[in-house]
Structures are given as structure tokens and as C-alpha cells.
Amino acid sequence: MRFLVTGHTGFKGAWLSLLLSSLGHEVSGIALDPLPGSLFERARVGELLVDDVRLDIRDAAGLRSAVADSGADAVIHLAAQALVRESYRDPRTTYETNAIGTLNVLEAVAGASGIEAALIITTDKVYRNVDRLEGYREDEPLGGDDPYSASKAMADILTQSWVKSFPGVPTAIARAGNVIGGGDVSKDRLLVDLIAGFTSGVPNPIRRPDAVRPWQHVLDCVSGYLALVHAQLAGNADGAWNFGPDAGNYQTVREIADAAAAHWGGDAAWVDDSHGEHPHEAALLTLDPGKAQAGLGWRNELPFPQSLVWTLDWHRSVESGADPRSVTLRQIEAFTALRSVPWLEGAQWR
Ligand SMILES: NC(=O)c1ccc[n+]([C@@H]2O[C@H](COP(=O)([O-])OP(=O)(O)OC[C@H]3O[C@@H](n4cnc5c(N)ncnc54)[C@H](O)[C@@H]3O)[C@@H](O)[C@H]2O)c1
Asked: What is the pTM of this model?
């Protein structure tokens, strides 16, 4: 199979590209340049790709020809301005990239030949948040109080309307929550900032220690994306799908920060900055993963403590000189050995 991954230079995109390539698939990518020190660079992901196109998805004409030239069987659209805080700084770029960029992807997929499935990645933040503990189900109303959440809800609604208005390539939507894993370098992400604080010795300020999130290892999340594409190719998986951990894995930011500091050891610490001035972010947001569990046979494999240990160990190994690609591939191998599922076996794809 040949996969086209948009956003392949980002955090999830690099993990997904390495997973796909380790399963024997061909991968091509469309994205902006990677951030300095990114997993994409450190694990030399570019060497494994059949095509590595650097293009702004707001460029509709450029995207149409890049998608048509990709020869892809399936497209996974991850490219986005993915940070809430950055969306307050630059709302226009966030809306244009996340909403209009998704329209451009849908148009480009419709105009290409040979694509059998398209998967649009949105987020748990698309749900209209009423601060309740129970997870949101796929048929509940969407909303978005900050520019990032609203832009992704726009992408989600746009995709739903596109599918109804212009049926053609089977197109589904995947919604997942906050992911953790080795090699993330984006600013304002909890574990990235915590690890930077542990290694520099300057404890990181935490702005919302009591926020609750359905934390998930990036491999569980991208495994969900592959489960969905695998089912799309079998012809029965349109619509929106949540990929989140079970309720037992909900954690407060404080619990995560404490557990991370304890596992890191030494003087590792963080500081409570909840009294500072911060833009609005949801305090509580969880997903009901029942549809993906029943409909796809997907489930979250790594309990939260193990996800945290894998993430911290990735950083420790790499900081002490191990090759980032080897460390990442070892974790991919360990993950795929946890349970035998068709979408994580290369031979099961055609
Ligand atoms: N990381 C999380 O916790 C999380 C949670 C929920 C949803 N998501 C979603 O998952 C997807 C991937 O997130 P990530 O964490 O890997 O983000 P990331 O910021 O690490 O990567 C973003 C990717 O999108 C690309 N991109 C950004 N703007 C672009 C543009 N205008 N044109 C072309 N490419 C562009 C970047 O080059 C990069 O490859 C996003 O759609 C994001 O909204 C992420």
C-alpha cells in the first residue's frame, strides 16, 4: 500500500511514517519543514519516504498536483496548526490552515485518481465542551471556544458536509485527545515542557495543574488511525470515530507532572503557575471510545503509567547517546507485539 501522510514532518506524522514504513508500506508526505530538533530530523524519517514534498496546504493548486502525483492508495490528513496557544497568537493562519487547508485536501483527493480512502484527523477539542466527566460520543454537538478548537470543528463539519454533498472517495474523521511520546518538540505541550525543565534544572511552570485530559501514547493514537483506514478499505467505516483511553486513564496534569518527576528522579520538579494570566482552555475533556472498540476492534493498549515511562525512557535513551530512529523503532516493535491486529500486520493490507 502507498500512504500519503500530510503533516508527516510533525510529531504524530513522524511516528505514523515510521510505523507505516516498518509495516512494509510506502509512505509519501506533504508538509512544511520540520521544527529544529524534531523527531522527523533526529530519526531521519525523510530517508524512508518515497516522496517528501514541502508545500503549504493553503496552496490549493499546488496541493492538487502534489496529491495527484503521489500515487497514493490512502491519504491521512494530519497537517494543521496544532497548538491552542499559537491559535490565539495567529488565529488567521490557524483558521486558514485547519479549515480551508482541509477543504483543499478534500478537493485534491476528489481530483486525484486511485485513492481508495481518506482520513481527516481532527481532535477531542471539536466537541462543545460542557465540562462534564463522561466522555463525549461521536453524535454529540460540536463547538470550540478558542481559535484552534473552532478551526478543527470547522474542519470536522466541513468534512461531514463534503462527504454528504460530494460522495466519492470513502472519507472518515478521527478524533483523539492529547498524545504523549518520545521526540515531541512543540512548545506548550506538558511533557515536552516538563522534560525540558528536568534536563535544564529550571522547574517548568504549569498553568492548569487541575485540568483533566485523556492522555494517550502516540502509538495507540496512530494505531487507531490505521484501524480506521483498514476498515474504510473494507467498505464499512465512514463517519467520525473517537480514539481515546478508557475512563481509568484520565489524569490531572498535576498527577502526570508528579509521576513524571518521580520517574525522572534526582531534582526533577515543576511549579504551580495556576494563578498567572492564561488564555482560556477547557478544564475537562474526555472521549467515549466505545464506537471504535465495538466497530473496529481497536482499543487503547498502553495504560497511562506505561505511556509515561515509554516517553521518559525515549528521552533518557536519546539524551544518553542512543540513535533516535533505533529507539523509536524498538518501541514500535514492542507496541506491535502487544496484540495481534490486522492493521498492524503488513501482510493483512491487500
Ligand atoms: N498532539 C496532540 O496532542 C494532538 C491532539 C489532538 C489532535 N491532534 C491533531 O493531530 C494532527 C497532528 O498533530 P501533531 O501533534 O503531530 O502536530 P505538529 O505541530 O507536531 O505537526 C503539524 C504538522 O502539520 C504541518 N503543517 C502545519 N501547517 C501546515 C501548512 N500550512 N501546510 C502544510 N503543512 C502544515 C507541519 O509541517 C507538521 O508536519 C493535527 O491535525 C492536530 O490538530 C494532535
From this structure: 0.95
Alpha-carbon span 343 to 144, nearest angstrom: 32
pLDDT at 191: 87
CB atoms within 10 A of CB 332: 19
Query: Where do the structural domains in the chain lie, given as residue ranges?
Result: 2-349
In the chain, the N- to C-terminal Cα span, in Å, equals: 8
Q: Give the fold, CATH level 3, of 2-349.
A: Rossmann fold (3.40.50)
324, 308, 153: which is closest to 245 by C-alpha? 308
pLDDT for position 213? 77
Give every residue of the chain whose pLDDT is below 70, as ranges.
281-283
State the angle between helix axes of 324-336 and 11-22 in degrees (0 to 180), rounded to the nearest 10: 70
Predicted local confidence at residue 318, as pLDDT: 95
Give just the sign of the alpha carbon dihedral 63, 15, 288, 235: positive
Nearest ligand 1 atom, CA 14: 16
Atom of ligand 1 nearest to the CA of 8: 39
Q: Ligand 1: which residues within 6 Å by Cβ?
A: 7, 9-13, 31-32, 56-58, 78-82, 97, 101, 121, 123, 152, 176-179, 186
